[in-house]
Amino acid sequence: MVKLGANIVECCFVISLPDLKGHTKLGEYSIFNLVDFKGE
After folding, report:
1. How many contiguous H segments (helices) and E segments (strands) does the chain have?
2. pTM > 0.85
């Protein structure tokens, strides 16, 4: 979105999968999620 001139304010997800470590790729943005699914 930066290429289009937009400012990303926050990333919002319904389910977070912390085991996949996707939040590290979005580290510069604020992240909000409704549910953490930790796995087994």
Report:
1. 0, 2
2. no
